[in-house]
Amino acid sequence: MDTHLRRRIRAGDHDAFAALFDAYARSVYNHAYRLTGDWTTAEEAVSLTFLEAWRLRTALDADGGSPRPWLLGIATNVVRNQRRAARRHSAALARLPREEPVRDFADEVAGRVDDAAQLALVRTALAKLRRPEREVLALCVWSGLDYAAAAEALGVPVGTVRSRLSRARAKLAKHLEPARIPGQMRGDRTDAVGPLKEGTR
Predict the structure, then answer these.
(1) What is the four-CA torsion angle of 189, 191, 196, 200, rounded to 10 degrees?
(2) Are 189 and 116 in contact (CB under 8 A)?
(3) Which of 122, 118, 114, 37 is nearest to 79 (CA)?
(4) Contact 20, 5 (CB under 8 A)
(5) Model-level pTM greater than 0.90?
(6) How confident is the model at residue 13 (pLDDT cuts 50, 70, 90)?
(7) Are 78 and 48 in contact (CB under 8 A)?
């Protein structure tokens, strides 16, 4: 089924591409959210990922299994570009005259959320990882790709995926010691820093 879908997509079949979106949009969204930690940015990343996938459709191998690694690879590149654009935007804003800050009541609301402290701890730990380590962690741990599929998504050797994931886990274990369970939140939830639980098709 996936091989047939790949060939139809390569041929520019709009119905096949719509089926691709229906099948994998949630997976792409979850991956983007885990890389960015921001709902709005993740939603924008989904749109940009599928626009780019349509543009690059002839680069998709005609034969193969699930196109999910290909899509997540595109999503990873989209998020990288978003980060670069955000840094440029922040730099431009920093050059503007400063205004008197307005109190942000959202912080008070967030403070009432039970997992706020834990979530902050996780996000702080993730921020200390190098970008390649965050990307491998998001693909292998949260999106459930195996080493080979993650390597395909990132365009790197399988051994590189293994070593990056090993380093990422070691760093998280160090930074999340107060939480006792690296990468997890209350109970045994491993998807606490992602919005939705997904399959691995």
Answers:
(1) -110
(2) no
(3) 37
(4) yes
(5) no
(6) very high
(7) yes
Phi, psi of 18 (to 5 degrees): -65, -40
Tokens 């047939």 appear where? 4
| Residue with the two structure tokens 């912080």 | 107
Per-residue b or e along 162-187, where b marks 16 or more CB atoms closer than 10 Å to that residue's CB: eebbebbbebbeebbeebeebbbbee
CA quadruple 131, 132, 138, 141: dihedral sign? negative
CB neighbours (10 Å) of residue 102?
6
Mean pLDDT of the chain: 78
What totals of helices (H) and strands (E) does the chain contain, helices first?
9, 0
Residue for token pair 């780019």: 52
DSSP string, 94-157: HTSPP-PPPP-THHHHHTTSTTHHHHHHHHHHHHTS-HHHHHHHIIIIIS---HHHHHHHHTS-
CA nearest 57: which of 47, 66, 67? 67
49-72 average pLDDT score: 90
Residue 18, CB-side half-sphere exposure with 13 Å CA sphere: 3
Nearby residues of 4 by Cβ (< 8 Å), 6 or more positions away: none
Tell me whether residue 85 is exposed, middle or buried, using C-beta atoms within 10 angstroms of its C-beta: 0 to 12, 13 to 18, 19 or more. exposed
